[in-house]
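User: Hi! I'm working on a homework problem where we have to compare a predicted structure to a textbook description. Could you give me the structure for the chain below?
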Amino acid sequence: MLDYARLAPGEAADRVVVTVTFLQMKLPESPAAPGLPVVFPEGAQLERRQLSVAAYRQIYDEVGAPWLWWLRRVMPDEMLAQHLANPAVATHLLSMEGKLAGFFELESSNWPDVNLNYFGLMPDMIGKGLGTKLLRAAIQAAASMQDHRAGPVRRARRLTVNTCTADHPRALPNYISAGFSEMRRAREIWDIPRRLGFRIPDRLRA
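Assistant: Happy to help. Predicted structure tokens:
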């Protein structure tokens, strides 16, 4: 467990048990290979944004609340600010008619591997066909990442992601359909502070 996620002495928490599935995808070597551009509905816009801590927390909380996204909620502001300022971290926002619809976050700290740290839609945007398109856009964004350090330009080699049984039930099938393959599974126990206000499904309680 990350140090900042440990409970304070005497802190009330809900114990949750999840199965985490770790997945990977080999990215195309040619810059022309990622595929046709993703066509979103009219009025949609996808852009990379450098977010403030407050803006990031609002998006993270709204998108992740139904799926028990809690680690970034307890991450100290200073640590989160350093993370967001890292050049290896790229946050992309999807909006519909100027309203936030979803986001994804890529991180290339383990270059040439890229990790899809977070991916999700706003609750009222689920079921509108945007998830598949946004995932394709995330894969293409990862495939187009480059390393310009000493030597010839290198492209990203592999995209990794993980999902768990607290996520939307279609998350894992959608990753598989998009071309990810399962590497391994692991059982994890989370002690989620009750102060965060999550509604814990009975199926996940330890």
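For your comparison, note the following. The chain is about 25% helix and 35% strand. The longest strand covers residues 13-26. Good luck with the assignment!
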